[in-house]
Amino acid sequence: EGARTGGMRAAARRVGRGVRELAATTTGRTLCPYQGLQTPNLLFRTPGSPGFVRWVVSAVPALPRSDGKSDGTDRRGRGGYGETRGSNRGGHGDVRVRPSDGRPGNHQLRDIQRKLVDALDVRTILGLCDPGLVNKFSAVNVSTALSKMAKNAKRTRFVTKLDHHPSLVALCERALELLKMNQFPHRPVCNSAHALATLQQAGVLTVTEKDKKKKENGNVTPAQSVWRALFDVMPRVASELEKGPPRDPNALNPNALNPKSPNPKLQTLHPQETSARQSTMFLYAAALVKEIPCDEILAGIWNELGVDESRIASHHVSNLVWSLGTLQLDPGLTGWGIIDRAVPSAFANKTEFNSQNVANTWWGFARLRRAPNPESVKVLSAAIVTVQNEFKPQELANCMWARATLSSSQNLPVEQSVKAAFDSAAVTTLTGNSSTPKFKAKELSQVFWHYASLGVSPPQKLWLEMDSAARRLAPFQSPMDVSLVLWACATLDLKPSLETWLAMERRLADLVKRGFVGSGPGGVPSERLVRKEGDDVGRTRDTTLPRSSQSQRYTQPQQKRSGDSVLEWQQVSNLVWSYAKLRVFPDRGTKNALDDAFHRLAHEKPESITSQDTSMLLWGYVTLGFMPGVGDDNVRNFRTLFDAVDRHANVFKPDELTNALWCLAVWRALEGSASAPFPKSYNAMWQRLAVLESTDFSTSDGVLIAHHAATVHNELLTGVDELPVMKQSLIIAAETAWKTQSTQHSDPSNVSGSQGRVGAVLSKIGFKYQSELELFGGRGFFQASQTVDFFLPDWNVVVEYDGPHHFYDVVSDPKRARFHNGGLVDAFALNAHTNDLDHAFTPNAHTTNIDPGVTKNVNTRLRDLFLAKKENVQKVVSLPWWEMRLVKHGEQEKWLEGKVGKAIDEVKASREGKGVEAIRGVNDVAIREVNDVATEKGVDSSFASGSENPNAGNKQSLCRRWIDACSVSQRIKLEVELLGADDDARWRVVRAAAGRDATKVRAALRGEIETTGE
Hints:
It contains 42 helices and 6 strands.
């Protein structure tokens, strides 16, 4: 019919439209009117496929529309015929005679255009772009060559540098020539910008030079000149900042500006040239190379998008939001309005978006720290559920990171359907067959972070798969990955498996050994080692571009971290905090690695430690009971940490402030010496806390820690100032939180079977006791009460059964099998990675230097200190679970009677005034436990008996007096050094320690030791 009425070409056009309508009917989607050959690879030109339909349609010129506009399928620049084509060159518009000299109709260029579209590698494209022929290329030819080159370079991982390749240089020179002649339309401009940015991202071309020396020397490549020229020809609209007060209504309408304004900086697009794809593609290209456009270009982009918002599809929205997030650029009210209106319609149809669109959109919102509006949230959440089975690993990880980030920063809850979709998609990714793409190390760490940030434990099957994947990827983890995985495990209170933990510790030790700390191996600046993905660099603008102004609409930039390549303060603080949170002592190799990293950072970047890092490091080290390094390194590290406290004292968040105060008070209390170093800002921080209300804290834990800190300060510290009076709301909230915690601990349902066994044995022996009794006491505005396991009122004796949670764990034996196998094993000293014995560990109060499993943790030590201060408590009997475990069941009654009976005898003797040793508190209990264990090991520990006469002038009496005069940490170090030594060796050690001492308090005793001599 078409042949009879209008010839074969009219028939072909009708066939093309019929194919498009058929495709829309069969696929359920309306195909976009693509221009030119859209499917370059013949492999996809299979009848019935959407690619085949697009190719057939694009190969047929369009019928003219009644409004004079094209339907989008005309082949401008590729030999097609317009209504009047040829008439301007002497032909006749009605007859449509092919021009003989028109370049667009040149047969050779048309064939080259087809070959460019079908090319499958970069070298083929470079061969087609012969420098002698390129000078005849049109803008479409140039943009097509660059676009195909970029696509194939990325697909085939082409690595050859092309900055000075003759073919590329010729293409760039032709592009500059066309741009100067104003023969480079808007579509090729955006396509070319995207191609150049992609080529730079692929590493084969440089379009934005960041080397200042090269910029100053004027070493500009042709590609860089084209990039600048593309920015110059982009349509621009006066930004709201430059317009000033409106003069007339038309002045505020961007479309009212003259499109052919002589000022190229302020012009708008022709209405028929506007395209959402073009606008988003240019901004996407700028984001790829971290180049922020000026305000006028951004205003032009918003103007172009606002001409017809109905044409904004899902991939336009995702590219737009992703670009804004990458550039950390706030689009302003105009931009947000367009985005908020476009998202619901773009993601309403399930067939109009894919998983990448969904992931990029959520990621962009999260990077901008701005939640979508409620309608958009509903649509985008439903989109996650729709594409859950299509997510690639990186898309899934980015989407999970985005939802968790918006939940924590914008209080945007994650719907149950979305959580289920994430769980299902993660399991599918982790358990797929060998052909299924798997998570990389960075992506897996984001999955761990997602669950930890939400505070939701993953299902058991998923957790086991995540643990297995972490073990498999440990050799490839960056410092950030190692710290995030362990931080997530600690936050969720889920310990990784032994194999996974050891694998990550090996990776950590290897990174530190190879120098990936601070400035990197050999002092290389950290910025050079950061990998591209997830990098925040690039926000600095290239001021060499000729722009009239620079955009000022930034979102608050995230602090740049180099943890993807080297250990920084954030990674060290996360790791120390994780071990402390899980109550696990790092083994010797891991502790040395953390000490080395801390020492190097303290030397290279002492000022870069943040308030959060300071708070986490303080809590981690105090909870574990040691400070990094030994000797002089320990002193320097102390100074670095305390200097950081002084710097951040006025900027700590309320929760960080109470955490720091608790750590400092506990450290001073456990150190037991008023002369120990202390931050200068300690009192000032209490003054700052005194003006805070309970509502200033983000969590109830912050209020509770304030109560703990004040109680430790009031009860256990000497030589310190009285605390200022706190706000009444904080006092009430803190007391409520304290009582709630005490009630939970005294719940009878929480009593363990072993504790019940102790109660039964006490009753059988005949001791009268009260269980779970709350003892009151304390002074100041924060009253302290404690609940004890057993209280013997006749003798004011407290009996505490200390289960496993009162002691530290070790990585090498998470189930404490060594205690169940019949005795203590030097589990800490045994390096889990090499099976070599490590002997030294920084000792502290209650550290036996044998096994962290028999080392009381900081909370248990504080409990003993508080009980020793109670007026109605004369003796505390501690029953360690591991000691009770070593006693046969039939002998436990005799064992318990001996432990409790000894305490009662001491109380009797004290009441009768027979000169029995007074209660010396928890520190003496610790020393006796050291001696007991040493005796079991067959080591002479008689030096700790304390039976010498303090007035005697012999050497051993002076040794004992010197040890008693030392602080707790110094005392334990000396006792460990003296274990097994004879009298002469013991005297030499003490005399050497006195020679190093310079304190005034021990000056007289030091003089006696020096006088005694050898």
